[in-house]
Amino acid sequence: MTILIDNKSYTVKAGKNLLEACLTLGLDLPYFCWHPAMGSVGACRQCAVKVFKDENDTKGRLVMSCMETVTEGLRLSIEDKTAKAFREQVIEWLMTNHPHDCPVCDEGGACHLQDMTVMTGHDYRRYNFKKRTYTNQYLGPLINHEMNRCIQCYRCVRYYRDYAGGDDLNVFAAHNHVYFGREKDGVLQSPFSGNLSEVCPTGVFTDKTLKEHYTRKWDLTMAPSVCNHCSVGCNTIAAERYGELRCMLNRYNGDVNGYFLCDRGRFGYEFVNSENRIKQALIRNRTNEAATEDEIMEHLQPLISVNKLVGIGSPRASLESNFALMQLVGKENFYQGISEDEAHLNRLVVEMLFSGCVHSASLKDIEQADAVLVMGEDIWNTAPMLALAVRQAVVKTAASQASQEIKIPVWLDSAIKELTQEEKGFLATLTVTTSPVDDIATHSWHAAPDDLARLGFAIASYLQPGKINNTNFSEELLNRAKTIGDALKKAKNPVVITGISCYNDNVIKAAFDVAVALSTSDRKTGFCCVMTECNSMGLAMMEAPSFSVANENIKTNGHATAVILENDIYKHVTSNLADEFFNSCDHVIALDALHNATTEKAQVLLPAATFADGDGTLVNNEGRAQRFFQVIPNTTSQVQESWRWLRKLQSLKLHTLNGHALHPDDLLREMEIALPQFKDIASVSLKHDFTIHGEKIPRAPHRYSGRTAILANKNVSEPKPFNDEDSPLSFTMEGYKGTPPSGVVPFFWSPGWNSVQSVNKYQDETNGALRGGNPGLLLFKEKIDNKDLFFNDVPESFVAAKDRWLLLPKLDALGSGELSSYSAALKTLSPQPFAIMSPGSLLALEAKEGDMLQIMDAGIVYGSLPVKADENLCDGVVLVTAGLRESIGMSWGARVQIGK
Amino acid sequence: MFSHIRTIWLTFLHLFKRHVTIQYPEEKIKLRPRWRGRIVLTKDPDGGERCVGCYLCAVACPVDCIALQATEDENGRRYPEFFRINFSRCIFCGYCEDACPTYAIQLIPDFEMAEYNRQNLVFEKEDLLINSQGKYPGYNFYKVAGMNAGVKEKGEGENEDAPVDIHSLMP
Amino acid sequence: MQHVWIVLGVLFVLLNIAAGLIWVERRMLAMWQDRLGPNRAGPLGILIVLADTLKLFFKEDWIPPFADKWVFIVAPAVVVGSVLMSFVIIPFTPQIIVSDLNVGILFFLAMSSLGVYSIVLGGWASNNKYSLLGAMRGASQMIAYEVFMGLSLMGVVMLTGSFKLGDIVNAQKDMWFVVKQPLGLILFFIAGIAETHRLPFDIPEAESELVAGYHSEYSGMKFGMFFIGEYLGITLISAVTVAMFFGGWLGWSFLPPWAWFFLKTFVFILFFILLRASLPRPRYDQLMETGWKILLPLALANLMITGAVALLVRG
Lengths: 900, 171, 315
Description:
The complex is a heterotrimer.
Chain A: E1 2-5, E2 8-11, H1 18-24, E3 48-52, E4 61-64, E5 75-77, H2 81-94, H3 112-120, E6 131-133, E7 143-145, H4 155-163, E8 170-172, E9 179-181, H5 196-199, E10 205-207, H6 208-211, E11 221-226, E12 235-241, E13 244-250, H7 263-267, E14 282-283, H8 293-306, E15 308-312, H9 319-329, E16 334-335, H10 340-355, E17 359-360, H11 363-367, E18 371-375, H12 379-382, H13 384-406, H14 413-420, E19 426-431, E20 443-446, H15 449-463, H16 475-490, E21 494-499, H17 505-518, E22 526-530, H18 536-541, H19 547-557, E23 560-565, H20 569-572, H21 575-584, E24 587-592, H22 597-601, E25 604-607, E26 616-619, E27 624-628, H23 642-653, H24 664-674, E28 697-698, E29 729-730, E30 777-778, E31 805-810, H25 824-829, E32 835-837, H26 839-845, E33 852-857, E34 860-869, E35 877-881, E36 895-899
Chain B: H1 2-13, E1 39-41, H2 56-60, E2 66-72, E3 78-86, H3 95-99, E4 105-107, E5 122-123, H4 125-128, H5 141-144, E6 160-163
Antiparallel strand pairs in B: 1-4, 2-3, 3-5
Chain C: H1 2-32, H2 48-58, H3 69-86, H4 104-126, H5 129-160, H6 165-170, H7 177-180, H8 182-195, H9 207-210, H10 220-245, H11 257-278, H12 284-314
Helix pairs in contact in C: 1-2, 1-10, 1-11, 2-10, 3-4, 3-10, 4-5, 5-8, 5-12, 8-10, 10-11
């Protein structure tokens, strides 16, 4: 479509509103209440433009550009005098009550209100009356509240309530006293509350953890990163100042996390600065345990070259690190550092996705799905962003249906809301117990994993009769299957979500069967399986045996040195198994970033880099390989990426001098050859020597301050800036000033757009892909005609045993996460460990809610936990909190004994 | 040609003019209050640190010689945890003073800062902070800023209404 | 024996004058610019001479590794040598003259032409583009101004009928040649400034364009030699001007002849400094143009007219 803006003709996409069209064209037009993810409500009156009837119309009329659809030949003017004056006046009104506190406001320097004020040209206060004030509320340890700064754009409640489904933030009072907050002081309940700091165009809601060590955006050294607190792999921006990680910001990726992050991802960064960090290499059992790198190498030389090595990989270490370990110890001695059960499930998922029978669904696919089936996984707690995507799918399905019916554009938010009311798209949640996602579900059912699997197989059988041999399903189950199956059949883009937290392969197989049965030529079906850690998929794809196999081998063969890569074995397997392993090892070399039970066992401990002080690649549950980049320059400490340590050990072993520099892309290139399943993995990111016109991409904004004073207290002569040889990014503010390639965007900034809203300058179109394509390399390709893989093993129905309980993990959206649990703010929100049982089970145990229960398995006693009752949980199952800081490895999926 | 000769002649006549040189260490020039010399951090009328750690001086500094870290006390009042100026880089342009929204950073007419050791030109907050309001007496930022940082309650600042009663529906 | 004393005496006095000019020039420049100049070391700052000399002695005597070592060392010696040789023919008094050669003026012209070798060799040996540019400019400037320098003096020679400086001074007993040869004086003095490459004709150095021209790479006493050479050059041109146009040692009898000579010379030295204080440097092409297109024809015209008048008067 062609429209004329200020008498210049532009081509724009149909169906958009004028504001989106203008922003997509790169024109500057101020706005507040509009948000690309939330649509338009036309409340702030800021985006006014003039629209003319035809070429003879000189008068025109003012319209809110966000409320007007693009039409062929439309004439509008942004520069029109009246429109400009109007916009300036609107800002002037908004500013009448805005307090005089930008210097102490955390938004300052990245503030949409500041940007828009400058953009409209308002610069002089004419209003001489008193300013309105508000009292603030305590909103928990994550978000700070300063209500005086509010400009009443309603974005916060629209995000919190409508988009994220929270219900404890609302708007109160009336007319010019409108107040955004909670009913009374208290912690915001939604695990997506952190996004308020980016959604709020001014400083009402700000990141409270950043406040602890506040730094302005222009002073942050930033690098593109990937969240490592769950398997979804949201894109983030890690920000550093004075050698400390300061905050995490959302990094838009149209295929993954869009505009938002969950609180675990946003606030889980603090573990990098925690006191528990390993910063010093240690050789244990000697007087002075601290060791220099040379001492370490000297000490390890005999251990490495003489002894047999056993490598224990990690689902939270990068591909490079795992591969470097595999190279060091040899492929036959490399093991996944996870339990056999989990490894088995992971293998199954890899097999399914490799078969190409199903399309591996991205978050974007899930958001756009018109029917969602969740099987067995508590996605709200194991992968919060997935739950947010499912919510969008459900809401948007209703919205797009409504908009098709009466021709209202989808972005016309309030009209659509009015029309749809409580109407929702189809979502079926079949889980072990209740989850907040159930609130928006059309159909939810809670049962033991085997029963969930049976329902899954029944649905598959209903969708494609004859494929499942066993049809011994109960009437009730068949009815359920029919309801769900019918709804799924109607959908054009259904998605099936499952996960491994049931520790039951039948659940995953059933979900897969449903997805395969749904995949027809006219229906694009997505399949998504949640895994435990950020690189579980990458590790599983390396096809190594599990830790249990490693233990067996070392027990039979004996005499080995174990090299343990970023893995707390005690969190993955039961303590007796781990103890057994460590007792049979001659030596233990551990690499990790945080002290834990495993690093205690190590005779040699090497400080490994976290995502913030190293480079690496992670594969998320979709099979998307994504590169994260170092953001903390490492000049003095011994901390380095595990792969670098391991490569140094390897050169020690092979007696080669490692003279040449090693880059992550070199490792990935070796990996392509050694492991053909990682085809093209080296192209996941740009080569380390990539430059644009000979310039690297600067990590720091051009107004980065204090360069000649930061280190002046140590030495007045400034040192050379830290040189990054591993990536196309540099650690200074000098370098290429244009828009960098999409995978290496260190921060979003554009002239006049200092806030995160500048992301629109980096996109092809609003809500679209980043310019140059969304980053990430997909490792699984759907093979359209291949529908060979199908599972037929329908399990027997679950029967509660009298003295044995099925042990399953209960994760927590904020508290769970091996690394994020070391973040101070999240720790305060994390629950204490507890167990959940059904009232029936409690009755059988003669226990009541709050009693301390002992969980025992094959003679191991896991310690006492308080028990909670849950009516929705079926009898015979016990859920125990997992992933918390205090949590230990348990035999998930096993039948355990419970004593009082 | 004539102009050359005239130039030579006029220059020659300067032989009989008074010299303008001031014999510096013995004679001293009178410095105006706005002379831009050494940088100090001032205090507000109540004796509190004026600096709120907003980083505007640091970003305005063309030679990037100011580094600081903001922190907060228990009342939420911002102050710099450290404040460092590398005077060996400072060009005394006064941009930091212009940028300062709280009149905290001020340039005073003291320029005699020569040191034998360059390291001694790195000034920390203890070296910069003076017990005076400097050129702008009577100003306390927190009295006019909207927030409550232990200096005044919400609504008690200059030009502020009492906090809104959000339960009221009165017009 | 007396000759030896004269030689030593002249050498001693000249070198002291050259050194003293360090102080004189700075003080005078300062005065003309309403400043004070060096006034800290010794009474009126006179010990700056000592301080500056000591400084030059103790500076690192650096020979760049890329330079042509021997030529680099020889070059500064040439300038001092050639200028000092010129002083051989200067009659300070009727008695104090090293050697009153009968080709006196020609000897002076020959020696001062040799001075250019120092610039060319120094610039060449430095192996530095700025030095070389300076040297080239120096050479062409010398050639341009050398020519009419000689011609401008020929008027005086014509009137005297001798190249001997003693005879020339004696010929001015009644009237200084400045009256008969004003144009000759002006031309000679301009050529003299160019010859010593003093401001405003310091094109070979031109610090705003060429760092320091031909002596960019020089430091320590080698630089000091160029420095001394320049001051000796000033003194030489002033002395020759006095001898040729202002009656040399002649003067009223309340002062001895040598005092008259030095007084007159000193006035011209001050004039050199005044020029430095007041005039800007011309562009290189303007300098060459003035030399070849204006001053040379003027010198020839002066010669012709003087010749014609001399013929008429005798005739």
